[in-house]
Specification:
Elements: H1 11-17, H2 35-47, E1 64-67, E2 84-87, H3 111-114, E3 135-137, E4 143-145, H4 149-162, H5 167-180, H6 189-199, H7 212-225
Antiparallel strand pairs: 1-2, 3-4
Helix pairs in contact: 6-7
Length: about 230
């Protein structure tokens, strides 16, 4: 998981909400084009085009707008930009065309797996600055909770509730990690540090590398072992 620094909401969204009057109150179900696409695009830009939870690459066509605190229990936050994120569909790989294969809930991940769950004490939020510190990654692509006593319980619950060890996610992380690690076998410590810094930054298009936080973690572990 990578920390998301929230910015200002799109002006279109602000102006749309400001149109409320005695006869009309803005609500999530009424949000349409052009305001909703503007919100969606702003979220993708904030996140560097990676899923707020698992870190796979996403676009407007391959993501949905996620309410961190669900509308069912936090209706007053349904139009709060600070509560909105972009999550992948959580359906695994694409089938033919642009639709995702439909999976049973037990095999889903991220926003659709989370559904209406939120617990301030047990959910690691991507809006938490040190959210990445709650997790570890193995060379096999598995995500594990940190062994820090004050963080382990929330990390474990978050992994389970979001399905972050979904087999397809794990395989994708493994591929990213194992593609990189052979390249650092003969690298100097300075070169490894430079690689870590590179994966923590965005590319020229403003995007993050998919699973950049897992790769950076693996590089740090390699650096420590040298």
């Amino acid at each position: 998981m990578k920390y998301i620094r929230k910015g200002q909401e799109p002006e279109r969204f602000t102006a749309w909400k400001a149109r409320k009057n005695e006869d009309w109150q803005p609500n999530w179900d009424a949000l349409r084009s052009p305001e909703k696409p503007a919100v969606h695009q702003a979220l993708l830009q904030e996140q560097g085009s990676i899923c707020c939870y698992c870190g796979i690459q996403i676009s407007r066509e391959t993501s949905h707008i996620e309410h961190l605190k669900p509308r069912t229990t936090y209706p007053n936050l349904e139009l709060k930009y600070s509560n909105l994120l972009a999550s992948c569909p959580g359906e695994g790989e694409f089938s033919e065309g642009r639709s995702f294969k439909k999976l049973p809930l037990s095999q889903k991940h991220c926003g659709y797996k989370k559904e209406d769950w939120y617990d301030a004490n047990l959910m690691v939020s991507p809006l938490l600055k040190n959210c990445a510190d709650f997790f570890r990654y193995t060379g096999a692509g598995e995500i594990l909770p940190t062994d820090e006593p004050g963080m382990e319980k929330a990390a474990k619950e978050t992994i389970e509730r979001l399905g972050l060890n979904n087999p397809k996610l794990q395989a994708a992380r493994k591929k990213q990690i194992q593609t990189l690690l052979p390249l650092v076998d003969n690298a100097t410590n300075a070169e490894i540090q430079k690689l870590i810094q590179g994966y923590e930054q965005r590319d020229s298009q403003g995007n993050h590398t998919p699973f950049c936080f897992a790769i950076a973690y693996s590089l740090r572990q390699y650096f420590i072992s040298q």
